[in-house]
Each structure stands twice: as C-alpha cells, then as structure tokens.
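ok so i was messing around last nite and threw this chain in just to see what happens. nothing serious, just curious
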Amino acid sequence: MASSSSISVVCLLFFLSPLLHLNAVNANPNYKDALLKSILFFQGQRSGKLPSNQQISWRSSSGLSDGFLDHVDLTGGYYDAGDNVKFNFPMAFTTTMLSWSTLEYGKKMGPQLQEARAAIRWATDYLLKCARAKPGRLYVGVGDPNVDHKCWERPEDMDTARTLYSVSPSNPGSDVAAETAAALASASMVFRKVDPKYSKLLLATAKKVMAFAIQYRGAYSDSLGSAVCPFYCSYSGYKDELLWGASWLLRATNDPYYYNFLKTLGADDQPDLFSWDNKYAGAHRALVDNDKNFEQFKQEAESFMCKILPNSPYTTTQYTQGGLMYKLPQSNLQYVTAISFLLTTYGKYMKARKLTFNCGSLFVTPNSLIGLAKRQVDYILGENPIKMSYMVGFGQNFPKRIHHRGSSLPSLASHPQSIGCEGGFQPFFYSANPNPNILVGAIVGGPNQNDGFPDDRSDYSHSEPATYINAAMVGPLAYLAGLKTAH
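result:
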C-alpha cells in the first residue's frame, strides 16, 4: 500500500559481481543469495547520514534536517517504499518483523545475522529519537505525503516541507504507539546479548510507549487525518496493535501485567491476512510460544492456517493459476510474504513439538505449512508462469522499471545537478527505459491475479517495492537457506 509516488534506492555494482552471480532461478532458487539481497535492500531505503560502509552506492545522505521544525533530531529511519516520506506505522511493523525473523532464524542466517541487526538498528535508532525527543509526545512521521506525492525527485534533492507528525494524550494513536512498542521490545531481545546497554534502553522505551498506547486510546488516523490516510490508515482499528504490542512486551519481560492486559482485550477478530495494518494473526502466532495458558491463541493460529491452505474446507484464500496466494490487488506480495512467514514459523513450532492439527477433513502436518510457504517463496524468486523473479537483482529476469524515485532517477554521481520536485517526471518517470540504479533485493508489489506483470513504473500497485514486503520475506528465506534440502 505504498503510495502513489515513490523513491528510494539502490544498487551496488560491486554486488552484482561474479561473487554474487545473478543466478538462474529454474530449479532450486539460491536462498542464501536471496537472503543476502533481501537484507541489502534496506540500505537503499535509508534516510539520514549514510555510513562509510554503505554498499548501495548510488544512494547518498538525505533528510539531514528532519526534526528541525520542532528543534529535535529526527534524522535516520527508512523511506517506506518508493517515496521520500517516513511513515512510522509501517516502519515500526517492518522493524518488528525483521526482529522476529532474527529471533526465530538468527542461527540460520550465517554472515547475514550481522547485516540483519544493522538493518534493525537503523530503524530503532530513529524510533528511539521519535519516542524520546519530547515528553508526552511520540513522533510518528516526517514529510507531508500529499505534497511529496506530487513530486518525482531523489531523496538527496528533497525540497518539500519536512512536516512533522506526532501523537499525544490529546491526539492519541494507540495503533502506531503499540506498534512502535512492539518494534522496540522485539529489537531489545535481538540486542540482549550483543549490546545489553542498548537492549535495556530499547525495552525501557518500549514500556513507556506501550503505557501511552494503553492509557490514551484512539486511532492515529483520527488524530492525523490526511497526513496518514489513505496511505497508511489503520483500517483494522487499534485493538490488534494493543494485542501485538502487549504480546511482544510479554515475550521481552515475562511480566504478568501484559498477560493480564491481553485478557482484558476480549475475543479477537479472525482475519485471513496479516500485514502492517492487521496484526491479529501475527499476535496469535507470537503468543503461542509464551505459555501453556495460550491454548486459545493456538486454536486461533490453527484456524488462520485453515483459511490459508488451498485444499482446506475452510479456505478463504484465492490462488492464481500459477499457484500464488492472491489476497488483494494492491501490493499483493506484502500479504504473501507476511503469511509465508507465519506458515514457516508455525510449521517450525509444530515440528519441534511433533504436532499436527485438522482443518475439518484435512490432516495438517508441519510440512503442509512449510511446503506451501516454500512454493510462495519460490514463485516470488522466479518459479512462476512468466519466469519473472519479483526480487530485483535476483535471477536473469526481474523488474527493471520499479516505481521508486531513487532507482528511477540518475544518481548524484552521474547527475550532480539538483532535480526539482517536478523535474523527474520528464524524462525519467515517463521513460520506457529501465531504471538507471538497480535496487538490489527489492521485492515489488507483484503480479496480477492472472500471473501477469507489466513492469510499468507508473503501475505502483504492482511495481513498487516496500520495506514491509521485504521484512516479512527475510524469515522464510533464512529458514529455507538453513534447510539441508534447500540446495
């Protein structure tokens, strides 16, 4: 659901060296290469001052005065998709998913574990600033999306207002606050052993932000209106984020307060998707690990799987003729990657405990879930009717005209002159030429329901990458890369 304009990132000519061959995706995709690239992508989305070890070299520092309007430092973080806006709601979800992937599969990540931690920290350093800059206020976004989306310019050239958006007791945002708390709490577990001091700061801040989310109830869409809608409205309400945030704080602290709070939330919705907006299925899965009192969540997690499995009598999920899960036309791969994450983690949980369950007459084993997730991952990596890899820079045939400003406009190195707000439309946005900069690892919105993909820069619902599509793919790729049968 990244929005109609786009920017941010990419490429590393040296990463396209023989060292990381652009491998064929025929039989068995190279999951290790895909994992490396899925994490590398986040470097292309960086806002703020770029470090000396930045590998996506066509990007430069940007957004260096973010926060200036309120005399605070809000530099850093990520652009959500192809635009130059920092939307904290999807950014925090991205961070939680990267952290969960690392907690679940860190031992399978090999050299990518350090890169995953760096990707998480780029977000949490920024989210800490947002939570700690001013007492009683949580900053939740930088940049006016309605102005930004009228432009097609590099993040390095940004000349639009870097308007700041925040929530407070009088303008609450339980959804964005609880998601921020989930991000900080899950990340605190990632850094617990490698950087205990940072981990403690993350957790202490997560507790404060969660307390704010609980005490001052309200949807951030109601407080901020057109600054977040229709881009990242909280369509599912904020109860799912309260559940999700509390489940992560429970995991990070084992404090019975969060368990008791969860019980006060009452019966949950039973969705058949999982995304930056709707966290119920993810929270149910996250809670299964905590305690044997969570039989209710185990049942809800299994009920969710029964809605996803294609041959289940309770399925509510469409599949394309080529076998891709098809949920919604707008950026469908965000649902595919997020659901594949839940399929692999629940399959792994079942395997460890030798569990099975039934969807009516259908007998479900761990491999039923893992096999389905693998088919979705393989489809994304090129095992599909048109042999298109939906990960940029992976395989021989991948999207060349992604809806992304940084990728579609010449880099500062090749075009040092500034490109103004509207200067990028002609000749770049409307050009039929491939993007000059390859945003390695970016996963785009994906094919349509007929397995077709036009590779058209203006078709943002199919051709725009987004941080939360990639963040959810990291876990399944790490899992598959770690299986001995993967190669």
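not much to say yet. The CA atoms of residues 4 and 460 lie 6 Å apart.
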